[in-house]
Amino acid sequence: MSERHTLRQQIRERRRALTAEQQHLAAQQLLERIQSHPDISAARRVACYLANDGEINPLPTIHWLWAEKKEVYLPVVHPFTPGHLLFLHYTPTSPMVRNKFNIEEPELDMSRVIPHSALDLMFTPMVAFDAKGNRLGMGGGYYDRTLACWQQHQLGPKPIGIAHDCQQVAAVPNEAWDVPLPEILTPSKHWRF
Ligand SMILES: Nc1ncnc2c1ncn2[C@@H]1O[C@H](COP(=O)(O)OP(=O)(O)OP(=O)(O)O)[C@@H](O)[C@H]1O
Ligand SMILES: [Mg+2]
């Protein structure tokens, strides 16, 4: 576990050290990769996240998805099932609040929750990844739980990890519950596993 802890600290520092200009460029390059992704035109409901802690910023992508009349969903920490996420419809007028991690999320409104199975694509944040598609997150197991059903039965949205190139590591020390990703997008590469 401590190897995972050290790796998280190291890669989180690395991505927080990116300049505003590097972040801006990365977000634009990510948008271009998503615009040319083979699955995007058929996707109607897309889960994203709001960037935090130096993560690659999906906001330009979110604005483009809205312009394309697609529905955007954001993760919300489940109010009473620990370690789980809900996905809420996100629009330019969604009321926002800060969750227990001080991350901005849509205010909980059960009428805006979508079942995971109704999403078409899920862009997944990561702390670190390797060339086999292994993913290390922030340590809450939220996405592992969200993706467990997809991994077992191929039900629900295909997860596509998104990250800066500098978040690639030689090997993520995997645990049994970690869900590897079938695809990863970085500014410089589209990985398929
Ligand atoms: N499918 C699951 N069911 C039950 N517990 C799980 C599941 N997946 C992960 N966990 C638990 O969650 C905890 C954190 O997992 P892990 O360190 O892999 O988080 P992470 O992948 O870095 O975080 P995240 O998925 O939130 O980005 C672990 O203690 C693990 O036992
Ligand atoms: Mg994990």
UniProtKB/TrEMBL annotation:
Gene3D superfamilies: NagB/RpiA/CoA transferase-like (3.40.50.10420). ATP binds at residues 4-8, 135-143. It comes from the Bacteria. One of its GO terms (biological process) is tetrahydrofolate interconversion. Transmembrane segments: none annotated. It is an enzyme of class 6 (ligase). The keyword Cell wall biogenesis/degradation does not apply. GO terms for molecular function: 5-formyltetrahydrofolate cyclo-ligase activity; ATP binding; metal ion binding. It catalyses: (6S)-5-formyl-5,6,7,8-tetrahydrofolate + ATP = (6R)-5,10-methenyltetrahydrofolate + ADP + phosphate. Keywords: ATP-binding, Ligase, Magnesium, Metal-binding, Nucleotide-binding. Substrate binds at residues 50, 55. Its cofactor is Mg(2+). Belongs to the 5-formyltetrahydrofolate cyclo-ligase family. This is 5-formyltetrahydrofolate cyclo-ligase. It comes from Aeromonas simiae.
